[in-house]
Automatic annotation (TrEMBL):
Catalytic activity, EC: 2.2.1.9
Recorded catalytic activity of this chain's protein: isochorismate + 2-oxoglutarate + H(+) = 5-enolpyruvoyl-6-hydroxy-2-succinyl-cyclohex-3-ene-1-carboxylate + CO2
Pfam families (alphabetical): TPP_enzyme_C, TPP_enzyme_M_2, TPP_enzyme_N
Entry protein name: 2-succinyl-5-enolpyruvyl-6-hydroxy-3-cyclohexene-1-carboxylate synthase
All residue ranges annotated as the Thiamine pyrophosphate enzyme TPP-binding domain in the record: 438-547
The Thiamine pyrophosphate enzyme N-terminal TPP-binding domain, residue ranges: 12-125
Record SUPFAM superfamilies: DHS-like NAD/FAD-binding domain, Thiamin diphosphate-binding fold (THDP-binding)
Keyword Manganese: yes
């Protein structure tokens, strides 16, 4: 058996096992050393190939796809710094718990650390942000080696999506020649038709004794709060609302929790808590004595500030798998149980129990008052960054997806995303909270037919202009709303705005770019507006390809408008407390 046959049988067995294990998509950034993998993927009819020339964009494109599809997506690149460009997406996948399979081609061992071109140290290069790394053996064509390569493929897919999901990295050393021969007999032959490994995973749940012990700790609390942070399990929405209604507990729902949409009975959901808790007075007067949190820590900074300010707030954190998402460094009780099963079992164990509902009624009053103020000028034709969010949500249809950018975009979503009976899925890259890769991530989410609108700031858009190329290549429809305040608008809300003499250069960072020309280069349609009426008209029709709507705002005016709203909310709730 010559080198080409050994290479071919090795790689075909690996790729076929990935397909057997459930991988349906691979994102390939072309290069020479990755030829065996790239060509083999294109030959397999069971997997769809996406070509993305820029590895940095490819990583985020795969991330968005894996997030929306809720399954492993594979990445393939050549050796050298090509792999290093995956790093930001791999970090985000780790912290936001998204399964990726990173397949990097490499020089063979004799060409490492000797000055060979396009050769860097790729061993453990993504640590500590991956769940498993394996340096693959050099290709051989023996039956034993075919079992080996199938075993590693099956294990990699399982590890990536088991427990807290993240990326898995397999590094492939390949010797030249690199071109497989797919005309060899029985090149796709497999020994097992159902996959190399069979993995059966159960779901954690508390037993009766554990539920009783937990309830004994909680039942005498007078000011409980249920809080649901960023998470993607839409089945949790119904069960958590039912638990909150039965027990009479306010449910503070993060905009990324999937709980603010698709709800008919919304009395227990408190969506304006971020605006309410911006008031130091409100944080003191309406602080809870216990918080039971599901999902990651909410986007809201005032909520976390309240936890930091009052050490006597008891915390219970429900997690499906081991982890330690508790950034306040305060004492906390971790409950490792499937959140959906936890809600179901807790309700069934104590069907007659309820906390004092006056606490819930207080939060309902606060929520109603804050909502009225936040939406008070909604029908006017003025256009602020908050109006962008509320208008978009009004115009979205059933089952559409919002991919929200970081910095001000996600915070405005937190403030102006009110509960709705429309099912709206909200995705974001809130693992590392970076502003990079957003365009690519949104195109990845739109790759399988989901109707996606990306909302982000001008700096974030600038960081990923290359991401528009994959949309052009595949004709993917995506609406992008760029809130252009000519720089870092979020810094206008921070102390730097008042204390730094170099604010504009260091934080405001105005860059005066005309995005219309760039969008045109990638074949997209571009609109610029400062009018709420025009924005609403643009949102009325679905995009047929790439559509970019630039909303021009003023940082200083926007900051003042927000502060006025927050001040009105504090004044109103204080007056209500005195009557």
């Amino acid at each position: 058996m010559n080198h080409t046959e050994r290479l071919t049988r090795y790689v075909t067995q690996f790729v076929d096992e990935l397909v057997q294990s459930g991988v349906t998509d691979v994102v390939i950034s072309p290069g020479s050393r990755s030829t065996p993998l790239a060509m083999t993927f294109t030959q397999h009819k069971g997997i769809k190939q996406w070509i993305n020339l820029d590895e940095r964009s490819a990583g985020f494109f795969a991330l968005g796809m894996a997030k929306e599809q809720n399954r492993v997506v594979a990445l393939v690149c050549t050796s050298g710094t090509a792999a290093a460009n995956y790093y930001p997406a791999i970090v985000e996948a780790y912290y936001s718990r998204v399964p990726l399979l990173v397949l990097t081609a490499d020089r063979p061992h004799e060409l490492r650390d000797v000055g060979a071109p396009q050769a860097i140290d790729q061993i453990h290069m993504f640590q500590p942000f991956i769940k498993w790394f394996h340096e693959m053996a050099l290709p051989e064509g023996t039956e034993e080696m075919q079992r080996y390569v199938r075993s590693k493929a099956s294990r990699a897919v399982h590890v990536a999506q088991d427990g807290n999901r993240a990326a898995v990295h397999l590094n492939f050393p390949f010797r030249s020649p690199l071109v497989p021969d797919f005309d060899l007999p029985n090149v796709w032959e497999r020994t097992l038709s159902e996959g190399f490994h069979s993995n059966v995973n159960g779901r954690r749940r508390l037993d009766a004794h554990e539920l009783i012990t937990l309830h004994e700790r909680l039942q005498h609390k007078e000011r409980p709060l249920f809080v649901v942070g960023p998470q993607t399990d839409e089945a949790l929405r119904y069960e958590l609302i039912q638990l909150a209604e039965q027990f009479g507990v306010p449910l503070l729902a993060d905009p990324l929790s999937q709980v603010r949409s698709g709800v008919v009975e919304e009395e227990v959901i408190i969506e304006t808590y971020d605006a309410i808790l911006k008031s130091e007075w409100a944080r003191e007067h309406y602080r809870p004595d216990v918080v039971v949190r599901f999902g990651a820590m909410p986007v809201s900074k005032p909520f976390m500030l309240m936890l930091n300010e009052y050490e006597d707030i008891e915390q219970w954190i429900v997690e499906a798998h081991e982890g330690h998402r508790e950034p306040t460094s305060r004492p906390a009780n971790f409950v490792y149980s499937d959140p959906v099963l936890f809600c179901m079992d807790y309700r069934e164990a104590f069907p007659q129990f309820s906390f004092n509902r006056s606490w819930l009624e207080t939060w309902q009053r606060l929520n109603k008052e804050a909502k009225s103020i936040l939406l008070s000028d909604k029908e006017e034709n003025s256009l602020t960054e908050g109006h962008v969010i509320s208008t978009l949500l009004d115009e979205l249809n059933q089952d559409e997806t919002v991919y929200i950018g970081n910095s001000m975009a996600v915070r405005d979503l937190d403030t102006f995303f009110m509960t709705t009976d429309k099912r709206i899925r909200v995705l974001a890259n809130r693992g590392a909270n970076g502003i990079d890769g957003m365009v690519s991530s949104a195109f990845g989410a739109a790759s399988h037919g989901a109707e996606v609108t990306l909302v982000l700031g001008d700096l974030s858009f600038y960081h990923d202009l290359n991401g528009m190329l994959v949309g052009k290549q595949y004709g993917l429809p995506l609406r992008i709303i760029v809130v252009n305040n000519n720089g870092g608008g979020i810094f206008s809300f921070l102390p730097q705005a008042e204390q730094s003499t170099d604010f504009e250069e260091l934080f405001g960072t105005p860059f005066e770019l005309d995005f219309e020309k760039t969008v045109s280069m990638y074949g997209g349609r571009f609109f610029r507006t400062q009018s709420l009426e025009v924005l609403r008209a643009q949102l009325a029709t679905a995009p047929k390809g790439l559509e970019v709507i630039e909303v021009v705002t003023n940082r200083e005016i926007n900051a003042q408008w927000h502060r006025t709203k927050w001040r009105e909310i504090e004044e109103t709730i204080r007056e209500g407390a005195e009557t």
